[in-house]
Each structure stands twice: as structure tokens, then as C-alpha cells.
Amino acid sequence: MPVDSGVVLACFDQQMRRDAPPDGPGARVERADDVVRQVGGDAGWNGVLWSELDADTADAAIAAQVRHFRELGQEFEWKLYSHDRPVDLAERLRRAGFAAEPPETLMVAEVAALTTEVELPDGVDLRLITDPEAVDLVVDVHEQAFGEDGSRFRDSIRAQLAEQPDRVAVVLAVAGDVPVCAARMEMPPGTDFASLWGGGTLPTWRGRGIYRATVALRARIAAERGYRYLQVDASDQSQPILGRLGFVALSTTTPYVYEA
Q1: What is the pLDDT of residues 209-232, one digit of tens each?
Q2: What are phi and psi of 256, to 5 degrees?
Q3: Cα–Cα distance between 168 and 83 in angstroms, integer?
Q4: Burial letters 115-139, b for 16+ CB under 10 A, else e
Q5: Cα separations (Å) of 179 from 8, 152, 154, 198?
Q6: What percent of the chain is predicted at pLDDT more than 90?
Q7: pTM tops 0.70
Q8: How far apart are the C-alpha atoms of 241 and 254, rounded to whole Å?
Q9: Alpha-carbon distance 177 to 93, whole Å?
């Protein structure tokens, strides 16, 4: 049965934004002035997950969040979705000093409808990383695939594997002894949604089905853990692949970043 986009989006907003659990050790979720935010500290993610604003309340709420995170000395992100209100919230954020990063597409699939059969090119294997000391291999792939510094990512994943191992699945694809793709899945307790993140493949190994195999393995784990949906903020590169696998686009999300 196809995903009922309206029903699933409302469920996502409720469970993963309004009532979101903290996403890692040491993080806390706070609710104030029609805004739900996470304070993740130096190693974690800081930002606004949900807001229920209108044209009369938006500017004051934005200013309050800026003050809050500036007092903490933290850069933070306002995670804006295309269905959020007021309709000009993006422009209000820009006027307040936020910078937009590339938008992504919120995509969701029923776990039961996804293939869990892992098909890999010859000579490539998938490994589940459970040892915090092995995270360096994952971060090396992340840095090469996305061209980003992985220091904060390294600290966050190590902390999760050490303190909350049931909340994360970290996957590494290896060709011989060479890591070529890395991905992870977050499994928030008490929700219907497991979330796919990463999925970075080295340029010379793209187009061979390795990313697709990591999705299948993570779907299998999500099914075993009893999750109903898989959710991903898809880049332009991964969106066509996920669409062919059965994921449906529900909204777009744009990170608006405010630097401390």
C-alpha cells in the first residue's frame, strides 16, 4: 500500500519534531515559546526542531532563540521545513542573520515495503561497526565523500557507540582492506521512525549499488527492531536512488545556520 503522505508527515512532525527525544548522550530537548529546540553542547547538534509560529510571533521567537544560543556560545541550526509557518519564515531567518545551506528532501518509506536483500559488487563486504575505536575508518570515508571536517561527527558517533549502542547502527563497506562507503541509522526510542544518515561513497566506487546495499541492511535492522518507517533527508544525489527503492518525498528541509 502506498504511503499516505499527509498522515505520515503529521506523524513525523509529532514524533520526530514536537516530541523529539534527545539524539545523543548529553543532549537535551527544551520547549519554550512555541519552539522545540535541542541543546547538544560542543560535540552534539544544537538547533530548532519545531516551531508553531505566525506572522505576529515569528520575529520575537527567532530573536529569543538567537539570544539563548549566543548565551551558550553555540552555533545552532534552525531546521526549516517547506510546510512550516508562517510562509515567509525563511526570509525572516535570513533577516535575523541566518545563512541557508543546501536544501534536502524529506523522504519516507514503509520498512515492510523495502527490500532487505543485500547485493554487493564482488570483493565488497558490509560491516557493522560497534567498536568506538573503529569510528576513524567511518569518519575517513565521510571526509573524503563529502569534503567536510569529521571531528564533531567522530566525537558524536563514538559517544553513541559507547553509551547508547542500541540507538545507532553504523555500517562500513570495505573493498578488500579499503573502506569505500559509510552510513549510519539512528533509532530514536518510542517512535515509529528510524532515520538514515550519511551514505557517503568514495567517488571511484559510486554507481555500483553499494549505497543501495547499505539501505537494504539498515532496513533489515529497522524491521528487526520493530520500526514502521525509514526516514531520510535526501540530497539531490541520493534522492533518485531512494525514489527507485520506494521512498516518497513528503517535504523539503533547509538548514538555516546561525554562527555564534
Answers
A1: 999 999 999 999 999 999 999 999
A2: -105, 115
A3: 28
A4: ebebebeeebebeebeebeebebbb
A5: 35, 20, 16, 14
A6: 88
A7: yes
A8: 20
A9: 46
Distance in angstroms (rounded) separating the CA atoms of residues 161 and 108: 25
Bridge partners, residue 78, by sequence: 48, 256
Q: Which of 216, 211, 129, 121 is nearest to 165 (CA)?
A: 129
Query: 105 — alpha (psi -120 to 50), left (phi > 0) or beta?
Result: beta
> What is d(CA 192, CA 199) in angstroms, rounded to the nearest whole number?
21
* Residue 205 near residue 175 (C-beta atoms within 8 A): yes
C-alpha distances (whole Å) from 90 to each of 81, 146, 207, 236 are 9, 25, 35, 20
Q: Reduced to 3 states, what is the DSSP secondary structure of residue 102? A: coil
> Any idea which architecture 110-251 has in CATH?
3-Layer(aba) Sandwich (3.40)
Instruction: Return mean pLDDT, the chain.
Output: 95
Residue 153 has pLDDT above 90, yes or no: no
pLDDT digits (tens, 9 = 90+) for 117-129: 999 999 999 999 9
CB atoms within 10 A of CB 33: 14
Report domain extents, the chain: 5-104, 110-251
Buried b (16+ CB within 10 A) or exposed e, 193-227: bbbbbbbbbbeebeebebbbbbbbbbbbbbbeeeb
DSSP 8-state code for residue 21:
P
Beta bridge partners of 176: none
Q: Are 93 and 235 in contact (CB under 8 A)?
A: no
Estimate the share of the chain in helix, then strand, then coil, as percent rounded to the nearest 5.
35, 30, 35
